Amino acid sequence: MTTSSASSVSPGPEPAEQDGDPHGAPAVKRRFAFPSAFTVLTAVTVGVWALTFVIPAGRYDTEDGSPIPGTYHPVELTTGFWDRLKDLFLAPVNGLYGVTDPESALTAPGGSGDFAGAAGVFLFILAVGAFITVTMRTGALTRGVARLAHRLRGHRTLLLVVLLTVFSLGGTTYGMAEETLGFYGLMIPLMLTLGYDRMVAATVIMVGAGVGTLASTVNPFATGVASDSAGIGTGDGIVLRLVMWVCLTALAAAYVVRYARRVLADPARSLVPVTEEDRLLGSDAQEAEQLTGRQRTVLWTFAGTFLFMILAVVPWADLPFTFLPTLGWYFPELAALFIVAAIAVGLIGGLGEKGTATAITSGAGDFIGAAMIVMLARGVTVVMNNAAVTDTVLDGLHSAVSGASSGVFGILMFLVNIPLAFFVPSSSGHAALAMPILAPLADFAGVSRALVVTAYQSASGWVNLVTPTSAVVMGGLSLAGVRYDRYLRFMAPLMGALLVVIAGFLAIGATLD
To answer: Is residue 468 part of a domain?
Structure first.
């Protein structure tokens, strides 16, 4: 998943420059480290709280939860400084299980009214984390990819396309990110054996999963959280996202294959020249072990769970597939689905009762950071709503984009989210922070909120392909033995092409909406 929360591998520390002090002890000059998403969101919370004393309070009239254009008006706040200070103190708690009183429109823990917290999303993220960890513990996923790679090793181009597509599938369905770090040990010797270089090995994994996440269809950490924050279903807008996934995955595969063929034809053109050590590593590539019957069943269960999730969240009645039932499942049902599936996979995979319970606990623990990111981001929204400044910001943004055509609006939503994605590299945190403000703009522009969700996740995924603040990028490059500057040189043309194609899809999608 694309967050800063799950366990990850990061590159080792670079040697620090030292200067001697008067006592002869070396003074270490520390390199600047970009703060974590937790620190960024904490700073944002405090900063937004301070701005609420400057930004005028105001609200829109609403209809079915959507703001009515032209109805923005100033309001008088009934809360004093100490009440506002208490809002800041309780922001994370309100972000988890705050309830909005229909009379005062204020959110606080307990009470009665509309649930405003992210408790459903919180539990869902833990359930998905447990499911993914249990599946990885069985060894089925790693061995399945290894078997696929070795069966296709005689068909170089087909192998690259299939592997990149497999990683892209992981990205588009469950935001595969940190989980990719376990595959570098498999891919590097395989690609070196086939006559490619370490760049090919790294980008088959990183670009594949990254483009899949960029074009997420039902990724719970991007599409799911953003849709919840936008007040729509996860399946809304899936047709556009599916078409984007197919086209962008094909574009990425063609780009990687083109580079791989160039290296195969002329190794001197490699961005990461093959060393003698690489040749020895390639010659030591081992045949992958056979999948056991248990592992095959685990893989089918793993795939079937995500297929059922798609069936459960997509509003088939609104699409030309009315023969399929519209279940209308949301986060409570989906959390239960992944908890049950985690138990089933653990038992099928031979982990036993104790091993399954340990893996579920460990998986939930690994993903608790992602869940807390969503909680913190939702807390920012509560602070803004209680101070009645959300609609004021929305009115200002509406004024900025008013008059723009629907196609231009789609592109603007993409561009606005790019700097946000850099400062908040957690896709779920970015979604929970931005969507409550940006999604209602779609109502004014006459397009669906699903388009804003697609624009957000495209921007988040695009930035996270290269951002140096990502442990997935830097850790993956460290494991692959590829320098970051060489990777940027490889990615520059692809990033430009993706930028243009994404903007085109969003413009067309907004026009046809």
So the answer is: no
